[in-house]
Amino acid sequence: MTTRIEKDPLGELAVPADALYGIQTLRAVQNYPISGLRPLPAFVDAVVQIKLAAARTHKETGRLEGKLADAIIAAALEVLGGQHRDQFVVDVYQAGAGTSHHMNCNEVLANRANELLGGRRGTYTPVHPNDHVNMAQSTNDVIPTAMRLASLATLPPLIEAMDRLAGALLAKGREFDDIIKSGRTHLQDATPIRLGQEFTAYGRTVARHRAKLGEAAAWLRPMNIGGTAVGTGINAEAAYPALMVKHLRDITGLDLQVGEDRVQLMQSMGDIATFSGALRGWVLDLNKLANDIRLLASGPRTGLAEIGLPAVQPGSSIMPGKVNPSIAEMVNQVCYQAIGLDTTVAMASEAGQMELNVMMPVITHNIVFSLMIVGNATRVFAERCVEGITADAAQCAYWLERSPALVTALAPKIGYAEAAKLAKEAIATGLTVKQLVTDRGILHGKELEEILDLRAMTELGVPGGKGLPGGG
Questions:
Q1: Do residues 296 and 351 both lie within one domain?
Q2: Catalytic positions, please?
Q3: Is residue 470 part of a domain?
Q4: Cα radius of gyration (the chain)
Q5: What is the pTM of this model?
Q6: pLDDT tens for residues 371-405?
Q7: Neighbours of 234 (CB within 10 A)
Q8: Which string of b and e fits 181-217 if b means at least 16 CB within 10 Å?
């Protein structure tokens, strides 16, 4: 491997001759051989978008010579177009604040800009990574801005997936609305509910979380770019913050705002922690939903078996014909991972001191990775599981008929204590509640049918209680 010699304030290093990155990136590679994980594409994009916006801003204000600005712009557009992606090589776990990844981006763009101007890699002339690519910027405002940009850019696929999942669940709610089944609380038999009611509620849960994520994302829209070292804006001209946000809006298509207090936005990671918390809220309910689907589909002979799931793959290497709830199981695993990622975001968000939180690299990786995997899991859950769910109305009716909880409808008529005795006898004898009521002569004819009307039990009111306050 041929090399070139580069210098920095610490001395000299031999950098691979064909590398677009430079000495500071190489030092980071040597210092942090930790995980083998490289920066997520959204994080690379976000920093390069900031560099593109800065070059356009400095060209507009005249602070940077047009020829140099154009070369940086061209280099940035190449990266955003998919080129040179193998040059972003700093491990996810690196020095605090993200200076290593930041300088990786500065060096790649400077070297490529110099090539476009006819120069050589590693000379940093006429374009210098600090003096020109990083003009009026600091790691301390670039990385918090990139964190917000990367999160906002990764959110839309998750929102689209949630819309699809909510729509699928609501459609199943309509499809299954006439299927009456046993409700369950404490994993024990409870009063009747319609399968459609269960699925409609699932869909509305998804929709509420989708709205909450949108609200939490609003916290990420104010940009602290222009705060430079400690949020005060040293070395950035007065027009710079607003121009940067204008160009970033154009580049990203995101709804961004000029930060009202750049010191505050640099000090606090509360906005990203709030957003991560909203994501965690969705993950908890998504996990519960996947677990419910697994329970409802358990069987096919010794479980609930009230619904059927699409068969997506053989379920066992030893048991022929076994089919597992594979998609829901994948969702569970993603949710457990995402909860751990949120815990990391929370702890790292608290770990800042004074004007800066140096844990930004791990915060950024965790929130962006979480958005990505939860979005993918939500989409696959909708596409390959929920949209293909079928109902077994006969199995639902079978369990419901045998549920001792049907005595609840009798309680207003015969009292709680007598109803409890009937439930106990139903369990002991194996007889249904309706059989016991008929055999005992407790109810007859129309009154029996009205009080033990299963559909009526799934609606607000007192079964058979016409004329009563709140009656059916």
A1: yes
A2: 316
A3: no
A4: 31
A5: 0.94
A6: 999 999 999 999 999 999 999 999 999 999 999 99
A7: 11
A8: bbbbeeeebebbbbbbbbbbebbebbbebbeebeebb
